[in-house]
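Check these lines:
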Amino acid sequence: MTRTNRQTIVKILLLLLLSLPLLSIRSAYALQGYLYTGQYGQLHWNVSPGGTISYYINYRGTGWVPGDSEFIAVQNGFQAWEDDSGSYIDFTYMGTTDLGASLYWGVRDYYNILEWIYVSDATWLARTYFHYYVVSGLIIEEDTVFNDFYPWTTTGQTDRYDVQNAATHEAGHFLFLYDLTESGDEDQTMWWSIPSLPTPETKKRTLEWGDRAGVRYIYPNTYQVGGGTLGSESQDGDVAIGYINSGSVLDMVVAWADNPSGDNYAYHRTEWEGRVNSHN
């Protein structure tokens, strides 16, 4: 990887999927189905429409699953985000590798690796790590660890945790969506915990309205429109861009989320040729 400038790089340990989590609850919170602003700000990949985020899976996989079905399940988890038509995000599976996940500050190889590691004294099921540039907020590497201390399945076997369920959640962290912890968000894929066994949870395999709104906010497919209309969608989240003043620069981005089970919240960012104002 060629570095075009010198910026401070930090390594962070950030997003968890826990089996028996104990987290504090944030107070000021408006239900919108996703969380993109948190402890580390709004980090993102330097990827444009047509670009892709590549990832590998360590060749050892997990001994809990026969054959290589865990590799397919992980790919399906990433594909759930890629399939959303309202976002341009794209992942590319590069195959298996003998490289391992980079788990320590300052140790990075610029490869995005997912790996099963046995950690017997941990209460977490899966964990995603980040390297990023402090100044720009650009992510340069992410690595996910699935805890091989816990039993895994790809077939719905009881007393085991579903690989695709966990992988879809962790892929959301790849996009830098934070865990959700507030009442009302329990059905979202980015909900912070999973139920206890024996029955494996599988509902996180697919995205919910808030998950789609989140990925569309960070990596939106855009629609150029004319007149006084900015977009026409009424469900989930969407983004529209238009020429608002006489300049040649697209001036406004409008994003909204429709919560089918409660109040609706609209979030928008306006930009007048480089000067940004945010509102919600």
Notes: Helices lie at 69-82, 163-174, 209-218.
